[in-house]
Amino acid sequence: MSAEYATFGLAPAMRAGEVRADGGHQVHRDFVDFVVDGRPLLFRLSDLDAVSPLASDVPPAVFTDQVRALLLEANAPLPGGRYVIYGCPECADLACGAVTAVIERAGDDYVWRDFAWQTGDDADLELNGYRGIGPFRFQGAAYRAALCALLDGDAPARRPRVLLIGPRVAVLARLAAALRTLGIGADIARDVTGVPAEELRPYGAVAFGPAVGAAERAAVRDAFARAGAEVPLVGGLAPVVPLLVAQIEHALDRGPEERRRLRGLTAADGTAEVEVTSSCRVRLTAHRLDRIHRTHTRQVFDGLLEPGRHRVPLDARAVKGQAFLVARAPGSVLVAPVGR
User: Fold this and answer.
1) Range of the domain at 236
2) CA–CA separation, 150 vs 223, rounded Å?
3) Residue 119 has pLDDT above 80, yes or no
4) End of a domain among 100, 128, 154?
5) Is 1 inside a domain boundary?
6) For the whole model, what pTM was predicted?
7) How far apart are the C-alpha atoms of 334 and 210, rounded to whole Å?
8) Would 2 be classed as within a structural domain?
9) Residue 154's pLDDT is what?
10) pLDDT for 129-154, tens place per residue?
11) Cα(225)–Cα(192) distance, rounded to whole angstroms?
12) Assigned domain for 3 exists
């Protein structure tokens, strides 16, 4: 084992929810990710859809127990001194698979080693070990300080809430229902006139329907400013629920820009340009409105991309007319209109 130290930190992260064209969905999860040597540990696992045990929607007592376990103040939950580092974002069942590692003390330091993919009580390092990841040796004081800060109030915020504003209640009602299915609270209002400041502060984002004018948007922005709440304001691109969900998910992402897998997305002249910061699976979905405003959805790309910028050709039929592109990678989502 190398005697060199790795740095240990924590950062807010998100597993974006999604409404799929087939009627299925995946839930939204906010969690705290582990940052090793300045880089999210999850980024070393290129195609893993998972969250850490430090998720915002677990009960406070369970969250505290997870932190205590990482501090080795409780017995390991799995044989061989193994702890779950990342688990299934839908059910947290070990049978779905989890990334586990041995966590142990080395004097005053903490060591994470023998990372493996595990679906039962025992890990098979020969078959399912992550070669090239770890071991990591963390200085005890910095490791404990980072984790103990979560117990002192730095835990992720609880269930996110979004305020939907606009006159087209039918569209907003469908959007609110979709968001609630993903685990995001959603309320609908015509405006925020007379709403007390304490009722505005809990919202993590505000989304406007396309029919909301500039003056009305400015009034909402001013109301939140007076309430001391800085929230992203989302202008709905089109009355397409999966597209609006993707816009809102992007707005809710509190992770630092430099630690997001998706860095950029543009689309024009039959080509999409995607920029990624680490090797990951990327899916591109096109949503378009035809001349009578029917919605058409098609997945136009699904593949593993290496860090950097990539040009992806788009099927002209998938982006004909008024069209929009949604890019998704583990933990990141971006939306862009398709230009001409």
Assistant:
1) 159-253
2) 31
3) yes
4) 154
5) no
6) 0.88
7) 19
8) no
9) 65
10) 999 898 999 999 999 999 999 988 76
11) 12
12) no
pLDDT in tens, 241-279: 999 999 999 999 987 787 889 999 999 989 999 999 999
- Please state, as a whole number, how many other Cβ atoms lie within 10 Å of the Cβ of residue 229: 16
Given 154, 184, 204, the domain boundary residue is 154
* Residue whose entry in the numeric block shows the structure tokens 């001349």: 291
CB atoms inside a 10 Å sphere around CB 135: 16
Half-sphere exposure of 175 toward its Cβ, with a 13 Å CA cutoff? 31
Residues 6+ apart with CB under 8 A from 118: 78, 82, 94, 97, 98, 99, 100, 128
DSSP H or E stretch at residue 142: helix 140-149
Q: Which two tokens stand for residue 58?
A: 């677990």
How far, in Å, CA of 72 to CA of 92, rounded? 21
**Same domain (yes/no): 127, 260:** no
Structure tokens at 83: 């702890």
Same domain, 149 and 15: yes
**101 and 115 assigned to the same domain:** yes
Looking at residue 320, what DSSP letter applies? -
**Do residues 283 and 328 touch, judged by C-beta distance below 8 A?**
yes
Q: Percent helix, strand, coil in the chain (nearest 5)?
A: 25, 35, 40
Cα separation, 161 vs 217, in Å, equals 19
| Helical H segments across 257-327, by residue range | none
**Does 119 lie in the same domain as 83?**
yes
In this structure, is residue 339 part of a structural domain?
A: yes
